[in-house]
Design a protein that fits this description.
- With 478 residues, the chain is α/β, with parallel strands linked by helices.
- Among the domains are: 186 residues, Metallo-beta-lactamase domain (Metallo-beta-lactamase, Chain A); 86 residues, Alkyl sulfatase, dimerisation domain (Serine Threonine Protein Phosphatase 5, Tetratricopeptide repeat).
- The strands form two sheets. It has a seven-stranded mixed beta sheet with strand order 1-2-3-4-5-6-7.
- A hairpin with a 6-residue loop joins strand 2 and strand 3.
- The longest helix is centred in the middle third of the chain and has 27 residues.
- The protein starts with a helix and ends with a helix.
Length: 478
């Protein structure tokens, strides 16, 4: 009995010892906080720097500029005896439909100055009054010229969702939206921007009022004026509040921004993500309607069933390809960066004149689809709770031997034309010490070069604004 008791006591002691050993191996007693240490900021750079000469326009960009200028030469085009399109007065176009009882205006451009010039030209064609105004969506290049065409009692039509977006854009987020649009169009810090080689299409005025829609609908709305039937459909794509206008008797379709002469801007870098799948599905539905006339809110109208069918079909294919390939990349576990490197339009799509990346871009679209369909974490650990970017930047600069070392390399790379890498090295220095004027100045020069090398209107605008902001931080004018 005594031996059995001794064995039990020994087993009990062993269990306690082993348990304590395991506990001390896997459990830390007391509160443990992650180690976070902010490295010391580097001193401001003192290198001598001679900026590159001002960038020149590449020869292969000249033809694009000629086409661009032609597209933004004020023009009123006759589509049919009763449909006219005013384009080139500003970024947004204005369409006019003449009926026996008055006019219907589709979109109103972004500028009252441009709208007045358009109205004067329309008045040379007809003296009838405006009976309806239609907004295809809530972007400012479609709605802020409305006071020129509006008079009390004239119905203004839009989707219910468009009104929600107007409230978001022009009330809740107005300062951000204005700043984002100015950034996109190259208007930030104008005193520090290099003068443009040609006048841009953007007409910008601080708008004191918005003519709000008085008729709204969820999915569809129809009306008749002077014997002409107007069918409006909620067509998600450019925005979630987008609509199209269909005149069934003449088979004329006003697609708003579901079509224009570029690979579409499926994801604008600074604003909300767009419903890409809805976009190509609506283009397919429009093709099935067999329009004879396509009257977009940007660029030229297209006449003839086959011509309209061809551009819309290929436009849909281009959008669908990028969407499907991005979804495939997501399901394969590729990161956003890996997908951006991998996904490009195949030759049969890239060769289409109306899918050239002069306004939207495939890589931006891939990023937008990723962010619309997935969360912000890539599943790889470091991005779950990242340190402020300045921490890693300061560590790298210390390892390199100071900010001068990185900026000396940036200057070498700038002379070699590697401007994106220059910007990223300068950003590391700026994150470590935002007051480093040399880093801001070097970066501004490379941004300007990238802007002039760009063949995309939005890319040029973003780079022009970014260069001006960096020059402003450096207190250096061009």
């Amino acid at each position: 009995m005594k031996i059995r008791m001794l064995i039990i006591i020994v087993q009990f002691v062993l269990i306690i010892v082993l348990g304590a050993a395991l506990l001390t191996r896997y459990v830390v007693f007391g509160a443990v906080e992650p180690m976070v240490r902010e490295p010391k900021a580097p001193g401001e750079s003192t290198l001598a720097y001679q900026p590159l000469p001002p960038p020149r326009i590449p020869s292969d960009t000249i033809s694009q500029l000629v086409k661009f200028k032609k597209n933004f030469t004020p023009t009123v085009e006759k589509v049919t005896d009763r449909i006219y399109l005013a384009r080139g007065f500003a970024l947004g176009s204005v369409a006019m439909v003449i009926t026996d009882d008055g006019l219907v205006i589709v979109d109103t451009t972004e500028s009252r100055e441009a709208a007045r010039a358009i109205w004067e030209r329309f008045r040379e064609i007809t003296d009838q009054p405006v009976r309806y105004i239609i907004y295809t969506h809530s972007h400012r290049d479609h709605i802020f010229g409305a006071p020129v065409f509006y008079s009390p009692g004239v119905p203004v039509i839009a989707t219910e969702e468009a009104v929600k977006m107007m409230d978001l854009y022009y009330r809740e987020l107005l300062p951000f939206i204005e700043r984002s649009r100015d950034n996109q169009s190259g208007r930030l810090a104008p005193g520090f921007a290099r003068p443009l080689p040609m006048k841009g299409p953007f007409k910008h005025e601080l708008q004191p009022e918005l003519i709000r829609p008085t008729i709204t609908f969820a999915e569809s709305y129809e009306f008749e004026l002077g014997g002409t039937k107007f069918e409006l459909r909620h067509t998600r794509g450019e925005t979630t509040g987008h609509l199209m206008v269909w005149l069934p008797e003449v088979k004329a379709l006003f697609p708003g921004d579901l079509y224009y002469e570029s690979f579409p801007n499926l994801s604008t870098p600074m604003l909300e993500q767009r419903p890409v799948k809805d976009w190509y599905e609506w283009l397919d539905r429009i093709v099935a309607m067999e329009p004879e006339y396509l009257v977009p809110s940007h660029n030229r109208p297209i006449s003839g069933r086959e011509a309209v069918r061809e551009v819309l079909t290929w436009h849909s294919r281009g959008i669908r390809y990028v969407y499907d390939e991005t979804v495939k990349a997501i399901n394969e576990g590729l990161t956003e960066e890996e997908a951006v490197e991998k996904i490009h339009l195949p030759p049969d799509l890239a060769g289409r004149w109306h899918l050239a990346e002069v306004y939207g871009r495939v890589d931006w679209s891939v990023r937008g689809i990723y962010r619309a369909l997935t969360g912000w974490y890539d599943g790889r650990g470091a991005g779950l709770n990242p340190l402020p970017a300045r921490y890693v930047s300061r560590e790298v600069i210390a390892l390199a031997g100071g900010a001068d070392k990185l900026l000396a390399r940036a200057i070498e790379l700038q002379k070699a034309g590697e401007h994106q890498l220059v910007c990223e090295l300068c950003d590391m220095v700026i994150r470590a010490n935002s007051k480093d004027k040399l880093a801001h100045n070097i970066k501004a020069v490379s941004l300007e070069y990238m802007g002039y090398q760009a063949k995309n209107l939005n890319v040029f605008g973003f780079y022009r604004s970014a260069a001006a902001l960096e020059r402003q931080a450096a207190e250096v004018k061009p």
